[in-house]
Every structure is written in C-alpha cells, then in structure tokens.
Amino acid sequence: METDNFLTIESPSEGLFKEKGSRFLAFAYPVQDEEEIQLIIENTRKKYHDARHHCYAWRLGADLTHFRANDDGEPTHSAGKPILGQIQSFQLTNVLVIVVRYFGGTLLGVGGLIQAYKSASMDALKNARIIEQHLFLTCKMSFVYDDLGHVMKVLKDMDLPQWDQRFEIDCELKIKIRKSQFSKLQHAFRPDCSVKINVI
Fold this sequence. Notes:
CATH architecture of the largest domain: 2-Layer Sandwich
CATH superfamily of the largest domain: Impact, N-terminal domain
Distance between the termini: 22 Å
Strand order of the largest sheet: 2-3-6-4-5
Order of helices and strands: EEEHEEHEHEEHEEHE
CATH topology of the largest domain: Ribosomal Protein S5, domain 2
CATH class of the largest domain: Alpha Beta
Number of strands: 11
Shape: elongated
Radius of gyration: 23 Å
C-alpha cells in the first residue's frame, strides 16, 4: 500500500550553538509550501539583519524528494548541507531550519563550520515536538441523483467528511481522504455507478 504518513514538527522551535565567540541561532519551522518558506526566510533576514549569515535548508512532501540547502556566503557545503543533514537524520519533512550566525572574530575553518551548523540545527530539532501526519487529497465527486444513496453509503462506511454538497439531477460534493485510501474509494462503487472523482 502506498505510504502517506510522514514526520514533521508541531510548532516552531529554537536552538543555539556557540564556538570561539561566534553564535549560531537555529530556528525550526513546520511549513507547507515554498511560498511560506520564502516568507519566513525574508522575515528572519529582517529580524536578524545585523547577522553575518542566514543559512538554511528545507524539505517538503511525504516522498522526501523535494529539498534545498543554502550556504548564504559560507564556504560551499559548510552550512546548508549539514542543516539538511539534520532534517534527514530526524527523518522529517515539511520543515524549514534557518541558522543565523553572528561572527565572533575567529575563523572556524570548514570543519568547524560544518560542526557548528550541524550542532545548532540538531539543538533546534531536539527541542521540537515531532509528530506524525498524513497526506490528504481533496477530491470533487460528481454523480447523478439516482446514485446518491449508494454514494453516501460508501462515504459513510469509509468515514469521509463532505462539504460543498449540491444534490440536484446532477450532484456534486467535495471530500478529503488520505492518499493511501484513494484507490480503495475508487473501487468501492458499483460498476454501473455514475460517480466520477477528480483530485483538486
């Protein structure tokens, strides 16, 4: 069966790492899309405008294949990649982690930077409450009125909430269903049932 469950964080959390005068402030956020991510990054840059670097990484989606890491001027792969590594280590998705660095005057070297960004990110994620969520689909169903009873019985048996109902000669309604249950729904109707299901 197709998996539709994933781990994310319940609410924003913070972490901190200090090394040779440099401070690494880490912020972890639950997020839903790239637009929300961009807004949080912009707000963080404004709030901590006096910081030297605002490095980040994020991952979206239950399939874990959509992600990005940004070093924001630090040496290549010394910041974004270790931040992303912690998101992966905690097996999280729909998460953004930003690490804001205040330079303390002493260079840490690439190895020191990797450890610092990793440690700050780990601290923020350790302080977060990790929760399991499910991927849902919103669907529009259409069918003729004669099939109303059959359709409603299927939806009741599968305990699926409905809204935007319109019951006339041609009927329509919307439902929310776990992605892993979608195939079961498609096969739950009689072969002669007029129902059509479109994911929206």
